Every structure is written in structure tokens, then in C-alpha cells.
Amino acid sequence: MKHVIRSLVCLLAGTTFAMAADAPNLMINGGFDDPENPAKYWTYDYTQSQNSNYADNHTFVSILPEFAGHKNVMKMDINWMKGCSGLAPGIRADSPLIPFEQGCRYGITLYIQSAFTNNSFKEGPYHIYVQGYQWKPGIKPYEHPSWFDMRVRYKGPWMGPRVGWAKTWTKISGDFPDKQLSAFAMQNLKAVKFISVHICGIMGAGQLYIDDLSVVKLSQGYTGGKITEDDRRKIKQK
Amino acid sequence: MPPGMLTTELERIGRLISRWRAEIKFVFWAVITLGCLWISGVFDMLVQFERLGRIFFWLVVVSFMGTAFWRTWKVLSQRYTIQAVASIVERYFPQLDNRLINFLQFSNDTTKDPFKEAYVKRGIPEWNSIDVSKMRNKKALRWSLIGMGVAVVLLAIPCTIQGRAWTVALWRILNPFSNVQPVSLTKIVSIEPGNATVLQGNPMVVLCKVQGKKGHYVSLDIKPSDNNKTTYVLGRVDGGGIKDYSFRVPKVTTDLEYRFRAGDSPSPKWFKVKTRPPLAFVKVVLNVKPPEYTGVAPRTFDGMGEPVQIFQGSDIDVTVKCNTSATAVSLTVKGYEPINLIQGEDDKTWMGKLTIKDGNTIKVAAVDTYKENVDATINYEMLPDKIPVIQIAQPKGRVTLGPNGIPNIEFTVIDDYGVLDVTLEKVPTGTAKLKEAIGVPVKNWKGVNEKFFAQTWKSDDMKPTKTEPLAFRIVAKDNCLIGNGHIVQSPLIFFESGGSLADMAKKKDNEGPVKIADTLSKIIDLQRSNMSNTKKLYDGIALSKSEQWLQIQGEQKKIRQLSGEILRNPLKPLGPMTLTFQDVYDKEMLEVISTLGRVADTKETANSRNLCCLKSVAMQEKILRQLTNADAVADKTKRSKKISGLLMMMDALINGQTKVLVATKDYAAKAIAVGKTLVDQQDTLAADMAEFSKACQREASTLMENDKNFAESLAKVAEECEAKKIRPDMLKAAEKLDDNNPKEAEPVETTALIKLKELQAMLKEGQLAEAQADAAKATEELHLLKEKLNKLAQLEVKIIDSMKAMEAQKDMSAEERDEMEEDIKALKKNMQEALLQVPTDLNIFKELQVGNEAVEDVFQIFEEVRVSKEQEEELKAQGITEIASMKDDGLLEALQKAEGRVDDMEMWLKQSNIEEKTKFVTENFDKEEMKFQALGALSTQAEDIIGDLVKQSEEEAKKAEDSATNQVIPDFPMGWEVGEGRNSSFLAKGKSGNQAPDHKEQDGRGNVGRQGMSDGETGSSGGTVGEGDKNIEARRTPEPLQSGQVQLDGEADERATGGGKQASGSADSFGQAGNGSSRRMDSTAQGTMEGLKSLMEKTDAMHVKASLMNLRTTEIGAAAHHIRQADDAINRGMPIREVKELLKRTTSELKRASTDLSAGVSDSVDSGAAVSKLEDVVEGGTDQAPKAYKDLVSEYYKSLSDKY
Asked: What is the model's pLDDT at position B133?
């Protein structure tokens, strides 16, 4: 009997392990570990977008070989002009784009640490959320798309704490999209082809460090609101 | 009485009885017949039967008459037996007691019965006492006769009353086939026109001549075929002679019937009027066959329905189709004999042929069977074979060639249908009238037969000398078959000898720039002192004299005149700033003169003079700014020219050395004696090299201040010139060549060439470094500027906070309040000064034009909002906060200065899905205060952040509903939560958010967005209107087709979501027109733009790059200028042909720029006059023209477009 129980326990453990192994990290270079270019597939130089607010964004973002025990860390310098008030654009970075499978939900985790010298705002000093993208009009789809060839179509909810900042490495996590979506959300999510994690330090002055971003597919997908006839017609037209 | 006699007697009695009965019968039926006749007569008199009625009554009368005779005859023909007669007699005479019957029966008995015989023997003694006449029915006879009498009397009585009319009526009944008309008191004598056919659409007069009894009415019945009968009373008979009664039918459109009625005149007759359509052309088909050489396919036009275009010399088959039969159709073209067309398949179709070489109208005339004429004019647009256009891409004007320069002509010949022959002619320069001089063909291109012919011609063997320049011209002939074709000549192209490079460089240095700098300095000084004087005079304007102002005006005129001279300078000393300066020359410099004139005018009111004075100061300030900039730019241009001169020298050296090397190799290979020319060339190159080295040293010191990088590289190049010993190499090579030893000279020359190329690379490196440094500097300045603006924004916030604080402190003393107000005033002044510095700072980047996206696109980003429970609880606990917002005058200023767009940054939806807790109550501006709003163009690409609407109770929503504000921001960085605030905006960045929009009445420029109340323009071209405020009112827009028309996806209550919805075709209802002012673009020449932006951006970028590289940029600048003009014209709703013209100019300038840029730096210097921009600038658009001349100006643009 004991053998049987042991076998069952072993089987159960093995299954769990197997399940865990079945949910791989879908994010590419989420830990900035690419040997040739640690920032490969990440977007933080927005010169190409011709948005004057972010023309010099890349000068405030760097990859540190090591910081506070973590190797290869992204550092974002948020200064007075870049993140103290709502009128400033903030410093931003967008993770590599990974394909989004319709109907699936994704679990996102990343480690952050911040050192803000000035943040009197109640809300989080940074915005971290998943953005869903579609191709820009006229772009022929290709692998590992450039962020500049994509157009935002869907913004997920904010991740992480709303108040205060992470003084030590803090793991924050979130899901994308929500489990239950409205018809309006469903309608918009349908166009999404890729997702990436958007990080923006905006509400203070200081440094924000990012590491080990991972995205896994969750076993349970999202369920949507009622799709109206009108929705169907629009989808059909598209 | 024996039985035999009795029988005879009885038979006689029987006949008598029949006759009596027949008499009664006849009289009875005769009475009926006469009665019927009487009735018929009466009816005929009353109704006046037509023949049919009369026949009917005649038949009735006749049938009664026939019945009478038939019945009478039947009775007469009836035969009674003697027994029957005996029986009848027995009934009349009872005293016979059946003896008569018995006698008759017993007398015939053959039984010999004695009793019977005895009875017979006795006879009938009573028989003799019988009076047979008593058997006659006298009573019936009497009544019949009475009836007859009555009938006769009845027939007679009308005769006495109506006289002949009665007898005519009886006669008309008795003889229905007679044509006797009933006798009436009033009679219609005649009717005109009777049955007729009239021209459709024409009027018609019907006339009736009547004579009769006074008081009788005359009327007209008209019964159109498509309508009911209408009766018109025309009048009453006056009892006199014959009188006319007429009626005019104003327009006979359909067939009709009519009749006249006059009193008791006999039954009137209906007359028919038929209509016939007027002769007209149904179709005029022109089958135009253009001449074969044009290669244009034949085309058929409907001459009556579409604009006709006819190529010059086309054969035209004309088919004319009329609506009715025509007897002749002819065509007339001005200047040609009329052509009679031939009848086609029927008499409605006519055909003919003609050839048209000129004119603009064809007159078609036709005649129909009624001899009526019709003609029509068909206007056509004659498409002439235009003369070829020769464009000399290079050189532009008179060219001074360096020692190694060769004539190089790059030209294009364009013809609409093909260029046939092109000849390059050399014109002898010795003659006085060069234009008329006969040229010597240098090169022929025969039978080209292409529409676009581009060619580059170079000559190695023709060189100008110092005494005799070279002059060329291009002669082109097109393939037009009319006449001898078109032959055109280009302007003369001159090549002069500039001597050595050193001579050229010196000459260039000594030219204009110094003079220009002097002139500019002079103008600046003049303007500065004039402005100062104006300000001084303004301070004491009440005491100022008219002469003083006129003096200032005179100075301004002088400034404009001097500025005009600079603009007309063919060297374009202002370089890229020429066009901007041109704008100031055309607008402010001109306007300020008239404004000062008004100040000087003593008739003007004091207030008006004040205003004009202030206006003139503002304009003078702008002029001064531009002049200062121009000064800087002129200096930059001068430096650029120096740099380009050095580069040119280097290019010339390399070209020269390459040629010498090639020639040396040739001599070496052919082993022939080296010509002296080659030795001289190598010697000259050595001398030029020395000059180049000196020039580098000289310019390095002069350029050090402004173009440090380039100056350093020049110094380096000068050093390298000495270090590398290029000149000695060249001299050595010359010596070897002089010794007729080309083989030894070749490696030395090769070394010299390599070293020269190294030096060239160094120079280019320096040039690039300079450009990069400039770019970096520009970027840095922009960043600094941005920071400055941000700080100013912060400062503004502080000021507003202070003002609010001041408002809030009710118990503040007057002194404290004054002090605070003064502080704020000082702060504001500082801000104003700082803001004024912004455009000054930006002026250093005048070449940089801010462009907008040209994609008409709106894309929506859906945002999910998640709120923690704690947050929700906290927010729920809060009540509605009311924020009072006072009006801020700064906003008005901002509105007036607004231009351009500000980029978006991080934006998000309100991270709460519960009620809006803030209510803004704003103090609005009066309408009078908001006189001018300088709206920039809408971006044609916009992203819209939307989300699920927050759930909000109606009560709470009502509490939090903001007041309608007219505190509007022109543009603003959006980086904040997307939600309603205290101010509205003209951003049109249209983030829908996740709350129903508030009612904003003043601005309303937005994207598709959510349902809500607003007016004005819409930024997007399509999209879905999201759910928003259901309680929407009609949109107020002064103009339904205001820019931004939306093609809606799906359905929504879109009547109040911004302008332009009416054009979508999906709007639920049209918004009502409001009383708001139209908010069209207030685009200026250097201001905002909409459309063409992609091209504009590219052109600007190219312009900037070229400027930084010290390349020729004037053409690109001009192209950009024309694009902006075109864009401006579109914004102002100018005629499309004006826009077309400007775009053509853009294309032309870009082509020129392309030639210039691809040519790089050559060894030629333009010194001749190119097209002066002064004439080229479109300064009199249709909108600027006085009202009376608008059409004329519009026509001018049309003619330009057509001619082009």
C-alpha cells in the first residue's frame, strides 16, 4: 500500500512538474541576457517615431551589467523634466513583442526596484501594463516585428503596487487580459496580434530598475461579454 | 226573313263591327303617336338632340305609328262567323231572346224536326225592329276623338308660343336626317380656330362670335387630355350685333378639347386641339477623330450634354437628331462655310462631317416643316498642339568656366504630342543682335518623336576665351502637322572664360556679399531707429504731428525699397531665407506703410490712430526680427558660398589632374611627342594648387568663428598640401612632360592625383563634421527651448494658483491685494518676455518646418481599467467636489498665438470605474472677448483611448456634471488621465475616455469619440461613435460641411459628436445651425498646414540636410514654400486650379533642385540671373483680390493652368 501511495505521490509530483514545464516563458530576452545585445528586441529609442517627447528617451535608459544582485538590468533615469508632473512625458520602454493567441490569457511577472527621490503622488510612480498591438496599415506581417511597425490597440490593466515604490527587488505580476471581458473589450481585443509589456516611469524623479520579465500562457482563457449582431457584422466587414 | 238573307245581313253587320272597332283602335294609337311626337319635340327644343337622339325619337314615333296601323289593320282584317255576329247582336239586343241563334241553328237542321221547322217558319219578327247602329261603341269613339283633339291641341299650342322653333323641332324629329338646326334665340356665328394643332408650350386664343338674346351667358368648356373639364364664363350677350368672345390659354401643354356655349344656342360642338412639340435637338453626337500624329484615340461626345474637347485639326463626324421631322439641318463654325447635313435614316436624323482647326463653338441650325427654326450652340474646348517647351536644367544663366571647365548643357524639351527635331546651335557672339543671329548647328537630334526629350551635351573642343565667350541655343520643332509645326528657340546659353581658379576665387570674393552686408546693416539700422522713433511718437501721440508720421512712413518705404533690391539680387544673398524674407517684403513691409499712413491721417479717430500705431510697432518689430535673421543668414550664405568655392576648386583640381593623367597615358601608349598644351595644363594645375593651399589657409581663419569644424579641416588640408608636396609633384610631372617623357611623368601624376583625392576626402569629412555639429546644436537648442516652455508652464500654474488664492482670501486688505497683484503682474511680464524670446530662439531654425501627419486615420486603443477594492471604497466615501474655475486671460492669448501641434505622450484612462467626483464650475468668457481664434490644422491621424463606460448613478452624474465652459486651450501636451477637466480644448486629440463627455459648447473639435454635445470640426475621417451621453442635444455647427467629414462605421446617435456628420449619410438627424462663428483655418504662409504634409516634411527634411551640407538649397526652399502656399490655398478654400498651379511650381522647383543636388559642386559659377522669386511668388491669390476682381484673378489661374 505504501508503495502505491508513494507511486501516486511521485506521479502527482511528476505531473505538476510536467505542467510547470509545459508553461514556458514566452518572453524573448526578458532578462536582458542576450550575449550579443542585452537590449535585443527591447524598444527604448523612440527617435524613429518622431515624437518629440521621446526623442531623447534612449539617453535615459541603459542596461547595467549588474545591479543589486541581479545581472543585466535595465535602468531608467527619471529626472525632474521627465517624470515629476503629469505634463512631462516620462521615460518609457517596451518589451519585445510576442504573438498573442486569441482566447488565451497570459501571466506576466517581472522584478522591479526603484529609487525615487521625489514622488508626492498617490498613484504608482510607474505604469506597467501589457499593450496589445496590431500591424500598422500597409505593413506586411513578419517575424519579430519592430515596435514601430505596430499600432497599439489594447491596453491591459496596470500591474504592481499603486502606492509607494519598491525599495528592494520586488516581484510584480499581473494577467492579461482580464478573465471576464466586456463586449466592447472583446471587440477590440480581436484585432490584437502581438503583446508587449509597457513600462513608463512618470510620476517622480529617480531610477527604476527592471529585470527578469517573463510571460507564460495561463491554462484558462478569457471569456467575453455578449457579442451583438452589430459586433459580428463589424468583425465580418474587417 | 229567309235564312239566306239573314246570313247576308249578319255578314254585313260583322264587317260593320270590325270597322267600328278599327276606328277606335286607330284613334287611340294615333293619340299615343302624337303624344310621343309632342314629347320628342319638347325634348328637342330643350336638349337639342344630336342626330342620334333625333333618330331615336323618330324611331319611337314611327314605331308607335306602325303599331297604330298594325293594330287597326289587324282589327279590320278580323272576320266574324255569322254565329259570332248573331251572338254579338243577341248581346246588344236581349229582346231577341236567342231567337236569332236558334233560327240560324234550326234552319240548318237536316233532321226535319217539325218543331224546328215550325220554329224556322215563324221567322224572327223582332229582327225588323233592331237598329244595328246602336251596336257601335260611341263612348269609346268619343273618348278617342277627345284624346285625338287633345293631342292636336298639344301639338298646336307650342307652335303658337315657340312659332317656327316648334315646327322645326317637330320636323327635326320627324325627319332626323334633315340638317335643319333647331331654332334658338342666341346663336353662335363662328368659332376660331376650330380643330387645330398648336406648338406645345405656346399660348392659344380661342374665339367665338355670338349673336342673340340679351342676358344669355357665353361660356367655354376646356377639357385637357390629362385633366377634368373646366368651364370659363366669358360674358353675357348684350342683345346687339355679333360680338366676339375670346379666351387665351396661356400655355398649351397637352391635347385638349373645347366648346363654346351661348344661351340657348344649339348643342355646341367639341373642337379638338392637338399639340406638337417645338423643333429641338435630341442629340448632337460628335465623333472626334484627332490627327493621327497625336496618337490620341477617337472619342465620342454628346454635344448637348458634356463638355466637348476637340484636338486641333480633328475630323468630326456630326450626327444631329431632332425630335420632329426637319427639312434641313446645317452646321456653322466661325470662319468656315456653313455645312448642310445629309438626311440619315429618317427625316429626324441628319449627318455631316467637318474638320476643325480653331474656334470654340459649333452652331447647329434646323428648319422643320412648319418653317420654324431652331439653333443650338455647342461650345468646345480647343486642345491646341502646344509649342514645345525647352527647359535648360543646367547651366542657369551665364556661366564662368574654370581653366579646365568645358561647356556642359543639360536640357529637356517637352511637347504634348512629341518633339520631332532638336538642334543645338552655336551662335556667333560677335554680332550686335545675338537673338537674331543665325546659329551654326553643332549637334542635331533628328526624328526624335518623343514627348519628353532630355539630353546632356558636353564639348571637349569648344572653349570660351577671355575675349570671345561661347553662346549656344537649342532649337526644337514638334511633330505638329498644322503649318510647318512649332519651332521654338531657347534663350541663349553663355559660357565665359574665368581665367585661372585663383582669378575666379578672387572675383567671387570681391562680389556682392560685402555690399549686401552693408545694405542689410543699413536697413537694420534704419528699421531700428524708425521703430524707436515710432515708439517715441506713440508715447505722445496726441501731440504728434502728421509730418512726423509721414517721415516715419517715408523711412519705411525706403526700407522696403532697399529690401526689394536685396531680393532682386540674382546671387540670392539671403539663400534659404529668401522666400521668408519675401513674405515679409510682400506683407508686413507693405502693410506697415499703409498703417503709418493712417496714423498720419488727421481724419482718423484718436482710437483708430492708437490702434494703427500699435499695429505698426508690432509689424516693425517683426520686420526687424526678420532683418536681423536675414543678416545672419546672409553671413551664413556668404560662408556657404566660400565653402562651396573651395570644394569647387578641389573638384576642378582633381578633374584637371585626371585629364592630364589620361592624356599622359595616351601619349605614353602611342609613344608620340607630348604637346605643349599638356605641359601648360600641368603647370597651370601646379599654380592652382598653390592658390588652393593659400585659399585654404585664408578661409580657415575667416571660417573659424562660425564653422569651426570645417575651418579646422581646412587648416589641416593646407598643412597637408605642403606636407604631401603635391605642387612639387605636379611641377615635376610638368618637367617630365616637357622633356617628352610621359612614361616617367605618369607615376608622378598618379601620386599627385591620389594625394589630391585624400585632401578632398579630408575636406568632405570636415564638411560632414560641420553639418553634424550644426544638427546637434539645433537639437540641443530645441531641448533647451522645450525645457524653457515647460518651466514657463509651471510658472503659469503658479500664477493662476496665486490669483485663485487672492480671490479666495476675502479678508485681504487693499494694500496686500495691490501688492499681490503687482507681484503677479511682474511675474506675468517676465513670462511674456520669456515667451517672446521663444520665437526669437526658434528663428535660428527657420529652415525647419513643423509638419503634421498626413494620414487620415483614427485608431482606437481600448484600455482596461482595474481598481482595487480599497481604492473603490475610498473613492466611494468621497462626496462630489465642486471646483470653481475662474477665467484666465492667458488662454485668450494662447488661442491667438496657437499654431502647430504638440506631440502626445503617456496617457491613460482614469483608473477608477466609479463615479466622477469632480464638478468644475467655470467662469466663462464673454463672446466679445473671444474675437479671434488662431486654430491650427487638425492632425489627420489621431489615436483615441477608449474604455468601458464607468458605471454611474444618474443622480451622482447630475451632481458632477460640469458647467459648459468656453475656456479653451489651443493645444496642450496630453500626458495625463483622459477625463473631463476645467478647460475645454481645441486639441482634437479626441480621447474618448471611460466617462460620458460633458457638454461643451464652444469648441468641439474632436475625433469620432463618444456621443456628446459639441460643435465644430471633427478631426477624423472615419470611425465608430462610442456610447456616451445619451441625453444629447443637437449639434450646433455654423456649417454642416465644416472640415472633418466622418464616414461612420455602424450606427450611433451621432448627431452631437462633432462636425461633419451630415456628410456621412448615417446621421440620425441633422444638427441645427448654431450662431457660432465659422472656425475655418487661420493658416498663414509660415503657419500650420493640412494635407500635402508628407511631401512637405520630406522637402523640409531635404532642405535642412542640404543647408547643413552647404549645398544649393534655394530651389528646395522654393518648393517647400510653394507646397505651403498650396496647402494654405486648400485651407482657405481657394479654387483648385490655384492649388494646381502652385503644385506645378513645386514640382518644377523640385526638379531643378534635383538637377542641382545631383550635379554636386562643379567648376562653374552661376553669375547670370535666374528667375527672380520676386516675380515668381503668388502674392495675389483669389482671396486677396478685391471682390470685383475675384473672377478675373480666378480666370488668370485657370489660364495659367491651361497654359502650363
From this structure: 84
| Per-residue CA distances from A119 to A84, A125, A127, A210, B756 (Å) | 7, 7, 14, 19, 61
- Contact residues of A toward B, CB < 8 A: 51-56, 81, 85-90, 92, 123, 127, 137, 151-158, 162, 177-178, 181-182, 184-185, 187-189, 200, 202, 230, 233-234, 237
- Here the cell at position B337 is 462655310
For residue B1000, the distance in angstroms to the closest alpha carbon of chain A comes to 23
**Which pLDDT value is given to residue B1159?**
42
Q: What is the DSSP letter of A223?
A: B
Q: Are strands B1164-1166 and B399-401 parallel, antiparallel or unpaired?
A: antiparallel
B906 and A89 in contact by Cβ < 8 A? yes
Q: Is residue A218 part of a domain?
A: yes
Give the pLDDT of residue B166: 85
**Which residues in chain B come in under a pLDDT of 50?**
511-512, 838-856, 896, 898-900, 913, 931-938, 1001-1005, 1013-1017, 1019, 1021, 1033-1049, 1054-1091, 1094, 1110, 1158-1184, 1201-1204
Q: Is A79 exposed, middle or buried (0-12, 13-18, 19+ CB in 10 A)?
A: middle
The residue among A47, A49, A53 with the most chain B CBs within 10 A of its CB, best to mutate, is A53
User: pLDDT, tens digit, for every residue of A205-229?
Assistant: 778 899 999 999 998 888 876 655 5
What secondary structure, in 3-state letters, does B1044-1065 show? CCCEECCCCCHHHCCCCHHHHC
Domain that includes residue A190, residue range: 25-237
Reported ipTM = 0.76
B329-370 confidence digits (pLDDT tens): 998 888 788 889 999 888 889 999 888 888 888 889 999 888
Beta strands B196-199 and B271-276, pairing class: parallel
Q: A57, A181, A184: best mutation site toward chain B, by most B Cβ within 10 Å?
A: A184
- Residue in B794, B862, B1050 nearest the CB of A153: B862
Report the domain count for chain A: 1
pLDDT of residue A74: 95
Whether A16 maps to a domain, the answer reads no
Give dist(CA A136, CA B855) in Å, integer. 12
Are the beta carbons of B860 and A153 separated by less than 8 Å? yes
Q: Report d(CA B887, CA B890) in Å as an integer.
A: 9
B878 touches A: beta carbon within 8 Å:
no
Q: Give the one of B868, B973, B1026 whose C-beta lies nearest to A87's C-beta.
A: B973
Q: Nine-digit cell at B230? A: 373646366
The three cell numbers of residue B113 are 224536326
CATH no. for residue A36? 2.60.120.260
- Chain B residues touching residue A199 (CB < 8 angstroms): none
Which string of DSSP letters, residue by residue, matches A74-133? EEEEE-HHHHSSTTS--EEEEPPPEE--TT--EEEEEEEEEEEEE---SS-SEEEEEEEE
- The burial class, CB within 10 Å (0-12 / 13-18 / 19+), for B648 is buried
Instruction: Write out chain B residues lying below 8 Å of A158, CB-based.
Output: 866, 911
Give DSSP secondary structure letters for B29-93.
HHHHHHHHHHHHHHHHHHH---HHHHHHHHHHHHHHHHHHHHHHHHHHH----HHHHHHHHHHH-
Give the N- to C-terminal CA distance of chain B in Å, as an integer.
146
Using a CB-CB cut-off of 8 Å, the residues of chain A touching B975 are 53, 86-90, 202
Rg (CA), chain B: 57
Using CB atoms, which residue from B793, B868, B947 is nearest to A87? B793
| B906–A127 C-beta distance less than 8 A | yes
The closest CB to that of B906, out of A55, A92, A154, belongs to: A92
Is residue A202 in some structural domain?
yes
**Does any domain span residue A162?**
yes
Nearest to B865 among A55, A157, A233 (CB): A157
